[in-house]
Amino acid sequence: MGTIHDLQERAKKLRPRKIKNDLYSFIRTLEEELAAYNRATINQESEDIFGKPLGFYSKATELITNGRKKAGDPFDLLESGDFLDGLYAKVDRDNVFFDSRDSKRKEVLKHLLSNNVFGLQDADKNKVVDTRLLPYFQNYFRREFLL
Fold this sequence. Notes:
This protein has 147 residues and is mainly α. It has one domain (4-146). Helices cover 51% and strands 8% of the residues. A two-stranded antiparallel sheet has the order 1-2.
């Protein structure tokens, strides 16, 4: 583990900029996982990032789909082209951006009840913090100070 003096020397080398760069490098490895959380919120919960509904199928949709999608059922966006499959998260410096690569993205979004589709709900943010970021920080500081 080293002496107190060794720990002080290691602490002096550990600058906020280094910690921040290392953290964002780690978060970049989570981009697909973050996108998967957003995809599940849209598809399985039919909610925006604040828990509000994305929309509901109409009677016309029920007729067009021969009853496969019932009037009043929440949107799942499964049949919206590549919207869900094209959903991604991108870490860029101090931000995480969410979007979809679907060429019909604007068309899909204009039919939703919410503009707050891209991102993470608080519960998903907490899962990421508890299961990914906290263990990362614990290992990071052990590695930086205790080696």
